Amino acid sequence: MGKLENASVQRVAAALAEHGIEGRIVELTDTARSAQDAADTIGCELGAIVKSLVLEINGQAVMALIAGDRQCDTSAMPNALSLDGQCKRADADLVRAATGMAIGGVAPVGHSQTVPMVVDGSLARFDKIYAAAGHPYCVFQTTLKELNRITAAPVSDKISV
User: Fold this and answer.
1) Which one, 18, 98, 112, 140, has the greatest CB density within 10 A?
2) Residue 63, in any domain of the structure
3) Is 50 inside any structural domain?
4) Which residues does 58 contact at the CB level (< 8 Å), separation at least 6?
5) Is 74 among the domain residues?
6) Is the pLDDT assigned to residue 85 strictly greater than 70?
7) Where in the sequence is the domain holding 69, given as residue range(s)?
8) What angle do CA 120, 6, 37 make, to 5 degrees?
């Protein structure tokens, strides 16, 4: 079975299709498990990679979609999502339970449950950005405007440093 037939990738493809986006998931020859790996494989700037970071606020999974050359300011996440509590990295079990995907291939769409999320406004620096598509070897190209539309997530300039 090819990577594009992977169940997580198929969920991402279906979620994209619901928004009128089809045929944009590509299988890479090398891994995109990290932002740097993805940038090297795609041949783009590190900042054009969307890191899908699953975090936890009071036991609830949340997601930050952060530019590859930035770090998530976890202290800003609760306010950005109108939640109370401290934000920390989610463990692998929570990531899998919330998204249905494994760390290293978590996409911004196609999750097994609704995950509150916020998008890093610094991604506006790039005409094209690339997000994971449910597998460490699969990505899709998008734009900040389109990512905002398909995730219905607010864009914030305060969640990355």
Assistant:
1) 140
2) yes
3) yes
4) 83, 84, 85, 86
5) yes
6) yes
7) 3-150
8) 45
CA gap 63, 143 in Å, rounded: 18
8 Å CB contact between 130 and 91: no
Q: Which residues contact 20 (CB under 8 A, 6 or more apart)?
A: none
CA distance 73 to 22: 33
Query: Would strands 129-135 and 138-142 be described as parallel, antiparallel, or unpaired?
Result: antiparallel
The three-point CA angle 80-99-64 to 5° equals 25
Q: Is residue 135 part of a domain?
A: yes
C-alpha to C-alpha distance for 45 and 47, rounded to whole angstroms: 5
Contact in structure between 158 and 76 (CB atoms under 8 Å) = yes
Residue 64, domain CATH = 3.90.960.10
Residues 92-147: tens digit of each pLDDT: 999 999 999 999 899 999 999 999 999 999 999 999 999 999 999 999 999 999 99
pLDDT band at 1 (very low <50, low <70, confident <90, very high): low
DSSP string, 12-77: HHHHHHHTT--S-EEE-SS--SSHHHHHHHHTS-GGGEEEEEEEEETTEEEEEEEETTS-B-GGGH
